[in-house]
């Protein structure tokens, strides 16, 4: 089994640096995908209420027989449930679908700033944290001004900000802001959903190391201290994406990947996305 390094979150909780994402995996296919991931050695699983596959994820977790304390399960609050009471209810619905009694990490999925409700949801997440229903709380797709507003509430600083991040969209300013506040940046679509894997610069580095383009891109993330959650439903790729701890990219190789920045956002913009 490949040992996966952990990152220490701002409240001392240890989170695996590499996890498994299940976005766009139909519920009835999710059990098989998560089962393959757990068999390969992943222990951190990233789902969300909106993915519609918390049940399939939970079934795989239960059937695995892996002790709950060895798993790290993340889910996310959808935009429709922003607000204090609705957040508490949505959390209970998520853990029920997952068949769990607590989550390791609960994230506000998008700020949806025009609704002006994410601060109310944050207060609810703080209650869930205080009540021991979740071990760490964070946000996703929050721009620095959204995060600053939560910090200004004077309570808990988000442990994690999960944002779209890959060589074509590096979000350097947002990552620096997160780091300055002790917030770990977690990369969603770390492989740009495959869009950066055919790049000649990636391919050349992969050949040099006898690795695949996906492994090179994941190394680029990991060597910068980020958490990654690549998704695949293909068992060989699931294993390949975990086998990234036996080689190291050189500084000039990291720089070559840095030069692939092209504002290549694949998902919506957080300032304007309201679901
Ligand atoms: P990824 O960047 O992880 O790419 C997934 C795609 O790449 C799939 O098409 C997969 O194909 C393919 N792929 C995976 N591994 C390899 C490989 N080794 N070689 C070649 N192709 C490969 O994209 P996601 O958008 O899924 O992001 C990952 C996770 O991030 C999500 O599953 C979700 O958990 C999270 N996320 C969060 C969001 C948010 O708003 N917070 C938004 C989007 C994602 P196949 O499956 O066919 O093997």
Helix content: 25-40%
Q: SSE order, as H and E?
A: EEEHEHEHEHEHEHEHHEHH
Instruction: Determine the strand fraction and express it as a percent band.
Output: 15-25%
Low-pLDDT stretches:
none
Number of helices: 10
- Estimated structural class: alpha/beta
Number of strands: 10
Tell the overall outline. globular
Task: Describe the largest sheet.
Answer: 8 strands, parallel
What does this structure look like?
- The protein has 275 residues and is of the alpha/beta class.
- Strands 3-4-5-6-7-8-9-10 form an eight-stranded parallel β-sheet.
- Helices cover 39% and strands 15% of the residues.
- The chain starts with 5 loop residues before the first strand and ends in a 17-residue tail after the last helix.
- It has helices at 27-40, 54-64, 84-98, 118-130, 144-152, 172-180, 200-209, 213-222, 235-242, 251-258, and strands at 6-8, 14-16, 20-21, 44-46, 72-77, 103-108, 134-140, 160-164, 184-188, 227-228.
- It is globular and about 55 Å long.
- The mean pLDDT is 98.
- Helix 1 (27-40) packs across helix 9 (235-242), helix 3 (84-98) packs across helix 4 and helix 7 (200-209) packs across helix 8.
- The chain has ten helices and ten strands.
- The site of NADPH dihydro-nicotinamide-adenine-dinucleotide phosphate has 28 residues, from helix 9.
- The site of NADPH dihydro-nicotinamide-adenine-dinucleotide phosphate (NDP) has 28 residues, from helix 9.
Provide a compact summary of the structure.
The protein is 39% helix and 15% strand. By secondary structure, the chain is α/β, with parallel strands linked by helices.
